[in-house]
Amino acid sequence: MKKLILMAVAVVMVAFTGCKGSSESNELKECRDSLTIALGELHALRFQQMNDYYKQNGDSTGIDKAEYLKGFKVVLSADTTIKGKSFIAGMQAAMQEMSTIEMMEKDLGITRNAYFNAIKEALSADSLDVDQQSINNVITPLFQKVRELTAENDPEAQKAKAATQAVLADVVKKGGKKVTEDIAGATLVEGTGAQVAEGQTVNVKLTVTDSKGEVLLSFGDSARPMPVAQFAQYHPDMLKAILLMKEGGHSKFYVNMGVNGRTPFEYFIFDVEICPAEQPEDDVE
C-alpha cells in the first residue's frame, strides 16, 4: 500500500512539473487529462491487486468489474452535505464489519436483516444507557450459549464431539489421567521439582498442535516465563491440568475445545514441559 501511495505522489509530481509555468488553457487541459488517466490506471492497478487477493482466498471468480464500478460510483455520487457523509459513513461501517456479519450468519444463525433491525432499534433512542464493558458482559455469555445450542442441533458437530470424546477416553485407557470431562493428560516425564502452584510464573516449553499435527503455537526449544493463570486463556480447564504438574515434568494434554475451536469439538494437543526455575547467580556455586 505504501508503494501505491508513493507511485500516486510520483505521478502527481511529474504531471504538475510538466504543467508548471503553462499559461495556455489547452495545455493545462491536456496535462489535467493526462494526470486523470494516469490516476485511473493507478486505481486499476490497485483493483487488480485486490482482485488477485480475492482469487487467492477462496473466490476463484474474483471481483465483478461492473458491480465494482457501480458501487464506486454510488460513493462518488453522494452529496457533500452531512446527509451524504452520513450515507458514506454507514457504508464504510458495514464494509468494516462484513467479515463479522458473515461469521454471525454462518456460526450463530443471525441474519443480516435481523442484525440491521437490531442496529436500527438501538439507534432510535436519543441516547444509549449502556457502556462498552456492560454490553460486553451481556454479549460474551450469550455468544457462548448460542454457539453451544447451535452445536447441539448440528449432526456434524455431535459426530465430532463423539469422536473427540473417544480420543480422550483412549488416552486414559492407555495409562493417561482424566483431568476433566474435556481434558485427558499423558505424562511423558514425571517432574521431581516443586509442585506448580496457582499464582506463580513458571518457565515453560509449550507446543500446541491440532489433531492432524499442524503446529498452532510453539515456544521453540527455549523455555519462556509464563503465569500459570494464563493457561486458562487457552481453555478454562487447562489451569487444573497445569496444577497437576511439577518442575521438570513433561506432559501432553488432549483438550476438547468445545465450540471455541476452529470447528466445533475439535481437540488440540498441548505439549507442556515445566522447566526448573533459574537460580540467581549468587546461588550458583
Question: How would you briefly describe this protein structure?
Answer:
The protein contains nine helices and seven strands, in the order ααααααααβββββαββ. It is an alpha+beta fold. The longest helix is centred in the N-terminal third of the chain and has 32 residues, at 25-56.
Primary descriptors:
seven-stranded antiparallel β-sheet, single chain, disordered N terminus, 285 residues, 7 strands, alpha+beta
Unreliable runs? 1-9, 11-16, 280-285
- Helix-strand topology string: HHHHHHHHEEEEEHEE
What general form does the structure show?
elongated
How much of the sequence lies in strands comes to: 15-25%
Residue-averaged pLDDT: 86
Given helix and strand content, the structural type is alpha+beta
Number of helices: 9
Separation of the first and last Cα atoms: 56 Å
**Main sheet?**
7 strands, antiparallel
User: What is the radius of gyration?
Assistant: 29 Å
**Helix percent band:** 40-55%
Number of strands: 7
